């Protein structure tokens, strides 16, 4: 079925360890046989990255991919995350390592002249003193007054000599230091200095050009940066306003602040860690974070992107977004949109059980340093960061990338993968880097591994996931996204204080009511035009802009919002999310403005993406529930007379009836459909006349991974969990059910009920294909005969029962095998 032209939209990671060329070729063939036509080479597992062995392997892979019409990307560093520069700062270039700024302090009473303090124990020989500032306490409540005294020049021979008025005072020693950076992170480049980033470019990028320039822009597409960051401090998320924390620093920081505040800059520096009674800490925190995130953008992202574009290749990747690290330092870059500014795609990742099917309204534990996942962020905001940037930044051309499937453990099978695909597709992600293929035998690093040297029992069905993703993302690329409203990105609010409505909470209220949105950063506001009351940017249009209000907003942002409002834009200031009746205030207001789409039931699991392409309106509709079927009337605000329903998993185009711009939709759990206007369907959706639950006798046999022969296991009338407590709890592989049933020739569906997890059906010797998600329903009309019908059902589970990795311990493991009930449905 060719609804729209299918394009290559997947480039899975291919982990390399220096394997033989025969093994590399086998793995490339496995990738190719999955229907995938591009690959991203994972370099961190190759000991000889940027050395002859590495380039020998890469040349071989480029040659094999070229024969098959495949493209190649390369992950750009030896260690994770990007910025290690293949070890260039391990023993050399030590002066190019990053610096941080921190404070330590003492609290003393004033009211005396010629006081002394020992300072030499506060300023270590390896540190540089930035300033010593005394701030007056206020009322013992942790606040400092705006009264500050610069004591920096009072230091002599290790002692601080000074006089202070009456009152309680906090003496801040503000230090330029590397002490807060972990030993591992010390070996990384400095994002605030372009000359440090140049070491990375010269060590990795230039070497690849010297070795592979003949394939640049041809078979070799470009480089992938994986989670580069500032790496300051000992925590994954470092925010201002926390005493003793370490923040990124270079001499240019203080120069910049002095350019704004003059001599007051030094006196305001304690505001990076402490709060003032007049709120001026907000100013210094904003100015500081604004500067370093812009420096990151220019020195790292845009510098590398410029090199790539000058050499005819693309630059993609993602930063760490986890739990709102997108707007902090530490393992973050402080501002998502700035960090990916001139990359050729926006980028995110979902790994480590950050999204779990079936989780509702609660944070889930996971195998991460921060231990729990921010449910609202991952469910309602993460993917929208990526797709919004792709929609609004003309450099991206609508391309939104997601690294997907990685480090979920072997518990992740096709059902979870399909659910994750739908989650990303309906939120506008349209390019994927599946994680991962590996050439290493029995690779235990971050499973699942798709081929696993032939020992992943689900590998033969992975092509269905790959085909589905490519069909879906091909449909949702090259067109225009339609949304109701825009949300102002809240990084600037997060930089300065916590008293604001988190953007992910607003996103949840909208998205659970089928109100779509894009997230727009303040940097983009000056490009926004107001046309007929709507905000317009890069062919996107919004009825209103929602601002997550905080206690303080920078005057420049206020002025941008005022200008838009004066030009007729509807600006909604979200000071809370609910009114006294627990009905969402924002949702009510947006619905009064008129929503693009709606459904006639209250169901937070139904999500809708509206996309316009080739003069056709495309609506992707998903059911993210994992248990219940959903039936509803889907209403479009845009006029439609003719439409079809496209099942991208099975590649079938069904007829549907449009009445008053509405269609009746039924979606099973894990289900999705594309409603496409302006085309007609090719076949009727099956409609059941009557159904019969079959009571059958089954012969069950098992084949472990890589076993060609099935071994008899049981005969039964009652279906059961093969990996249950008293059965085969360590079995991973294929389960064959042989049975028969009586029927008359006709039109039937065979519904297998619950299956754990993939089912392939053969009836009377005719293979009827496979199903990798519910409903496990097969059209058997062409195979059924009068009389007794011989039925074979082969069920495939995951490797989790055999391999039992720790990553898998964070998700529930469902039963294995055919559990039914098995139903024969006669259809019209």
Number of strands: 48
Count up the helices: 16
What is the helix fraction of residues, given as a range? 10-25%
Q: State the separation between the terminal residues, measured CA to CA.
A: 23 Å
Strand order of the largest sheet: 15-11-3-2-1-20
Structural class based on helices, strands and sheet pairing? alpha+beta
Overall 3D shape: globular
Structural summary, described in words:
- The strands form 12 sheets. This protein has a 6-stranded parallel β-sheet. The protein has a 6-stranded mixed β-sheet with strand order 13-4-10-6-7-14.
- The chain is globular.
- The chain is of the alpha+beta class and 828 residues long.
- Helix 4 crosses helix 6.
- The two termini are 23 Å apart.
- Strand 27, helix 14 and strand 28 (571-574) form a beta-alpha-beta unit.
Features:
single chain; 828 residues; alpha+beta; 6-stranded parallel β-sheet; 6-stranded mixed β-sheet
What's a quick, concise take on this entry?
The chain is globular, with a radius of gyration of 30 Å. Helix content is 22%, strand content 31%.
Layout of helices and strands:
Layout: E1 13-15, H1 21-33, E2 38-42, H2 52-68, E3 71-75, E4 99-109, E5 112-118, E6 128-138, E7 143-150, E8 155-156, E9 159-164, E10 168-177, H3 194-212, E11 220-226, E12 237-238, E13 247-249, H4 251-261, H5 264-268, E14 275-276, H6 281-310, E15 314-318, E16 329-330, H7 336-339, E17 346-350, H8 375-380, H9 382-392, E18 400-404, H10 414-426, E19 431-434, E20 437-438, H11 459-475, E21 480-482, E22 485-488, H12 491-496, H13 503-511, E23 517-520, E24 529-531, E25 534-537, E26 540-542, E27 544-548, H14 555-566, E28 571-574, H15 585-593, E29 597-599, E30 606-613, E31 616-623, E32 630-636, E33 643-647, E34 652-655, E35 662-667, E36 672-677, E37 688-693, E38 698-704, E39 711-716, E40 733-743, E41 748-751, E42 754-756, E43 758-763, E44 766-771, E45 777-779, E46 787-796, H16 800-803, E47 817-820, E48 823-827
Parallel strand pairs: 1-2, 1-20, 2-3, 3-11, 7-14, 11-15, 17-18, 18-19, 22-23, 22-27, 27-28
Antiparallel strand pairs: 4-10, 4-13, 5-9, 6-7, 6-10, 8-9, 12-16, 21-30, 24-25, 25-26, 29-32, 30-31, 31-36, 32-35, 33-34, 33-36, 37-48, 38-39, 38-40, 40-46, 41-45, 41-48, 42-47, 43-44, 43-46
